[in-house]
Amino acid sequence: MIKVCKFGGTSMADGINMRRVADIVSGDPARRYIVVSAPGKRFGGDAKITDLLYETHQNLTENGELGAPFEKVASRFRRIVDELHLDFDIDAVLSETAEEILQTRSESFTASRGEYLAGRVMAALLSAPFVDAKDVVKFDRGGRFDPASYELIRSALKGTKRAVIAGFYGSDPDGTVRTFSRGGSDISGAVVARAAMADVYENWTDVSGFLACDPHIVASPEGIKQLSYRELRELSYMGANVLHSESIFPVREADIPIHILNTFRPDDEGTMILPTEKYLAGVRRLRTVTGIAGKKNFTVINIEKSMMNAEIGFTYKIMEVLFRHNISFEHLPSGIDTMSLVIDSEELSHGVLEEVRADIVEAVSPDRTSVYSDVALIAVVGHGMTKSVGTSARLFSAIANAGVNVRMIDQGSSELNIIVGVDNENYERTVRAVYDEFFRET
Ligand code: ASP
Q1: N or C: which end of the chain has fewer CB within 10 A?
Q2: Ligand 1 atom, smallest distance to 48 CA
Q3: In CATH, which superfamily holds the domain spanning 291-439?
Q4: Do residues 133 and 176 touch, judged by C-beta distance below 8 A?
Q5: What is the pTM (predicted TM-score) of this model?
Q6: Mutation test of ligand 1: which of 12, 36, 76, 185 has the most ligand atoms closer than 8 Å to its C-beta?
Q7: pLDDT < 70 regions, the chain
Q8: pLDDT tens digits for 365-391?
């Protein structure tokens, strides 16, 4: 059994937390490869090391020195080593790092040093070798992740019982350090899990996994114990943001399950994210609904034209208008003589809405167009919805009983989700009604 464990910024925030991480790792011999983030915030208002490093770089460009931001980085790491009573020459590593930043003057290199330093300290704490991601995580000439990295990682890990790898960065073909996008240590963890052909990718964070809905709306909602990759995609797309579904493509491709766990409550069950087939085959009793997520501030443009279905190229002409304005749409529910475009309101601000509407009128001469804004979308997600008769009846009666008018419905062809559009002001009320209907069942 091989587990690859990624620890996020809060788990690495100070010496006490790093000690917890070391205990978690040592508690299970299968936890072999450890991927770390840079220390995050210790309390509200605290600074993340990565942010301080971006400030360091800015200071370097503007004033020619590393200055106060780097001093803060250095003292955080000195303190961590102190708290851990570690025999590790952090001062030497810090001055070497400062030297390299001054030499390279590269933003990515500077930003990556949080993970580098955290990795060095964690390796010392676990008495395990440190693998520099610069040598094994590679990007191609276009800046895309290079799958040749898997082999490099495999050979670097070969023969090690345990190893620590810094998250968030890798290097270009010429060896220059490059970072993934912000939050990218999740990708590094997934890459290492795939390379090591791990049985599971443990993603340790500061919450006990996914909840069935936003806890700001429903007090202490149920935790989701199991989730399929496809459900994860639907839920995180609609705003459930424990883990970015796109960031875990390497494990998804290799069908490796992801276990979301809480460093601060390591005995909690967490959420297990499984390849869809495995999930469906193994689940004991499929819940009707797995989770509910949603977002506010969408605009719906309704287009009506009798016999639109018979008009060849009708949709094409509308899509062409959107393409010209560089606008992506979220949903496209349509009827015989009507079509609605659901678009993030942000994309239509500063007069774009009026232009798009006028261009649509010119392109397809509709009988009528209407627009309503301030729409919230709620995604009700679950494989179980296909299997149980009457799900939509229950869903819509619950919403009606809450006194909410439904502005739009879209059921994805996968039957994995039903999207409901309501006025922004009814968003919370609707989520609560749907949660009560499907989660307070016996
Ligand atoms: N430290 C990086 C960031 O703050 C990467 C990560 O934590 O995943 O974005």
Answers
A1: C
A2: 4
A3: VC0802-like (3.30.2130.10)
A4: no
A5: 0.88
A6: 185
A7: 387, 413, 441-442
A8: 999 999 999 999 999 999 888 767 788
